Amino acid sequence: MTSPAHRAGSTGALLTLLDLDDLGGARTDKDVFVGPSERQPRHRVFGGQVLAQSLIAASRTVADGRPVHSIHAYFLRPGDADKPITFGVERLRDGRSFSARQVHAYQDGVPILSMIASFQIEADGVEHQSAMPEGIPDPETLPSTADLLGEIDHPVAQYWAFDRPFDIRHVDPAMYVSAAGPHVARNAVWMKTFDAMPDDDGLHRAALAYASDYTLLEPVLRRHGLSWITPGMSVASLDHAMWWHRPVRVDDWLLYVQEAPSAQGARGLGAGKIFDRRGVHVASVAQEGMIRLPYLDGPA
Length: 300
What we know:
Layout: H1 4-18, E1 31-35, H2 47-59, E2 68-75, E3 85-94, E4 98-107, E5 110-120, H3 145-149, H4 155-162, E6 166-170, E7 186-193, H5 201-212, H6 218-223, E8 234-237, E9 239-244, E10 254-264, E11 267-276, E12 281-292
Antiparallel strand pairs: 1-3, 2-5, 2-9, 3-4, 4-5, 6-7, 7-10, 8-12, 9-12, 10-11, 11-12
Helix pairs in contact: 2-5
């Protein structure tokens, strides 16, 4: 099981990742920030990390009172988790209600991610939301990742079990080492940070972007009976779109309900809705990922 001391360190590590250096206000034709990379057993930057950091960089250039409401991003190259990342923010527009920013994340002088983010002042208007699914077990009744993987002596298993800043609990059978259960294009997890986060709405929105990249391709894998350790399988996020509908706290339990409407051409699409424990629909997410299998023909 995860120790309290380790949990605090994981949440603190997330806050360190999101605390970008503005280089004393240095600018070119863009606002420039630098952020650290999170240690990874496979030495590749976690996509959720660069999403969250890019959002923090963009937010730093937007006036207070304009929270992010959407991002659209493309992962262009794998990132090196042993190197820092530089973020360049272009101020595309500041209107009466909306602000738009473009962010490029760079390593070794080339972009690894390109994102456009939109921010909006709070406004009144028509309102409705999706209903949270019924019959979902409480997160406290489900095993944690540490419960499932903590005894496995492998660097990736140990990282997932103890070093990630979010507590992830699968409603459906977890897919870390097997694809048990029906082959359906659905998946659901509860998630939250292990410890309390500061009362900063922007941090919570960025942290949610971080966590939204964890399991969104799992309904594609589940539909085809694949686990994360399927021999020879290669999985990579290609893009990521996200919409924040209402304020959110990531240090309270959130239900992430996911489906995979299509898979084709070595790509699979995952779509998700995120609800807080009261049933409030706080965000929606979509991502297409590359999924290649060694027994299927295709380009290298």
